[in-house]
Amino acid sequence: MAELNKITPRGEDFAAWYNDVIMRAELADYSPVRGCMVIRPRGYGIWELMQGALDAMFKETGHENAYFPLLIPQRFLAKEAEHVEGFNPQTAVVTHAGGKELEEPLVLRPTSETIIYAMLAKWVQSYRDLPVLLNQWANVVRWEMRTRLFLRTTEFLWQEGHTAHATADEAEAEARLMLDVYRRFMEDWMAMPPITGEKTAAERFAGAERTYACEALMQDNRALQAGTSHFLGQNFAKAFGVQFQTAAGGLEHVWSTSWGVSTRLVGGLIMTHSDDVGLVCPPRLAPTQVVIVPIWKNDEQRSAVCEVGDRLARDLRGASVRVVLDDREGMTPGAKYYEWEGRGIPIRLEIGPRDVEQQQAVLARRTGGKSPLPLADAVARLPVALQSMQDELRRAAVERREARSRRGIDRTEFLAFMEGDGGFAYAGYCGNDECEHAIQEHTQATVRVLPDQEFQSADVPTTCIWCGQASIAEAVWAKAY
Questions:
Q1: What's residue 434's pLDDT?
Q2: Residues near 453 by beta carbon (within 8 Å), at least 6 away in sequence
Q3: Contact residues for 373 (Cβ-Cβ < 8 A; gap 6+)
Q4: SS3 letters across the chain
Q5: CATH number, domain 405-478, options 3.30.110.30, 2.60.40.3140, 3.40.50.620, 3.40.50.970
Q6: Cα–Cα distance for residue pair 197/469, rounded to 1 Å
Q7: Residues of CATH 3.30.930.10 domain(s) within the chain?
Q8: What is the pLDDT of residue 123?
Q9: What pLDDT, on a 0 to 100 scale, did the predictor assign at position 145?
């Protein structure tokens, strides 16, 4: 069994390690359809918990869920020239249906701005109809050349928020608000602390005036763009004629935003926390938080330990702990431990005959360490232990990010840093596309964000790291997925 599920060490081959963790944890598998994945129940369970947490946060900020078609008339994409130029290489097009060639080809949505704005043109007439605050949970299709489970697949699941406002200031505030929602979710639920900031023009979403992003650092010191929020200005509104009558009686185009995260977050969770044993899942997003493993040698012992385990499981479920009692026969306790560790279960409770006599269980943490746990205290102490592990994972991720961040480095140090293990490099940026492209060509690193103030260096660089001219901002550079 161990050989069948052997995991390549991270330090040996990070990409192979990543795939091995997914396979051993039974999170996803490859589909017969090129570039697509099958999300298995354990992987989908993580996504469901992400979805539930984010959905609650969206509703708290006034958004409502809706659903728009998967099929989009091709002419809709052509209406917004910059948008279609950005997505055209990735679009999949339906040309035949019902045994006939379609009069107009239909695009499988790469994103939904165009069809949503076609509908907003019908729905929005007056300033009284604003703001429109919509979100949809959906799948999208982007014809990727190179795919990797969860991180980049031809079809993936996501949420996409779309809002329309009466003023530019309201839309800008919305884009920043949703960026903060994403950041809080990643920190509090995923224990994955991103840095936030604005993208450069080269990295901006097609059709946006400004793009903001959450960038997280993975264990291989590459950045993962974990979520984006876009201020779209009036670009789509003008393309689709989304206008409203103002309070003063004039006619104005709406100002809009879009924002989204996807099943890529599951990949980010894996790469942030997991180890050479398998998945490590933050407790708040673990479909199973606690597994109880009874240990016995004969039928009499089995009856006693399973009875205690069953009672404990019921008590924990009553305290909203997600728990599984593993009373399967024909497997040794060690084989069960191995299996559950690979699946990333935060806490394992072992109960043998001696534990029954002493009215205790042995608590084993996925991140290391064992200790006795009185059964009478289990319901009160396990939620505390789970939160402690959640906090521990977040602290470790912050420390790792900061340990692999370099500030105030010069060009020579920057090149050496990127040629070595890499990480986040904070450096001055002149705003010139030529410098940005030259650095990418020399190092494969890109500007991940122009960081928000709280992430900026105490001494913001005054000159560009590449050309030496005056810098317009500090930039965070990294190699990325």
A1: 95
A2: none
A3: 349, 360, 361, 362, 363, 381, 382
A4: CCCCCCCCCCCCCHHHHHHHHHHHHCCEEECCCCCCEEECHHHHHHHHHHHHHHHHHHHHCCCEECCCCCEEEHHHHHHCHHHHHHHHHHCEEEEEECCEEEEEEEEECCCCHHHHHHHHHHHCCEHHHCCEEEEEEEEEECCCCCCECCCECCEEEEEEEEEEECCHHHHHHHHHHHHHHHHHHHHHCCCCCCEEEECCHHHCCCCCCEEEEEEEECCCCCEEEEEEEEEEECHHHHHHCCEEECCCCCEEECEEEEEEEECHHHHHHHHHHCECCECCCCHHHCCCCEEEEECCCCHHHHHHHHHHHHHHHHHHHHCCCCEEECCCCCCCHHHHHHHHHHCCCCEEEEECHHHHHHCEEEEEECCCCEEEEEHHHHHHHHHHHHHHHHHHHHHHHHHHHHHCEEECCCHHHHHHHHHCCCCEEEEEECCCHHHHHHHHHHHCCEEEEEECHHHCCCCCCCECCCCCCECCEEEEEECEC
A5: 3.30.110.30
A6: 22
A7: 14-273
A8: 98
A9: 81
> Which of the residues in the chain have pLDDT under 70?
1-4, 80-88
CATH of region 290-385, choose from 2.60.120.260, 3.30.70.580, 3.40.50.800, 2.130.10.10: 3.40.50.800
| Res 86: pLDDT | 63
pLDDT of residue 71: 97
Q: How many residues belong to the chain?
A: 481
Could you give the dihedral angle defined by the CA atoms of residues 231, 237, 242 and 243, in that order, rounded to the nearest 10 degrees? 80
Cis, bond preceding 69 (omega within 30 deg of 0)? no
CB 42 within 8 A of CB 27: yes
Range list for CATH 3.40.50.800 in the chain: 290-385
- Give the N- to C-terminal CA distance of the chain in Å, as an integer: 32
- pLDDT recorded at residue 1: 40
Burial letters 176-185, b for 16+ CB under 10 A, else e: bebbebbbeb
- For the domain made up of 14-273, give the CATH fold: BirA Bifunctional Protein; domain 2 (3.30.930)
Cα separation, 326 vs 351, in Å, equals 11
pLDDT value at residue 472:
95
Q: Look up residue 470 and give its two tokens.
A: 């005056």
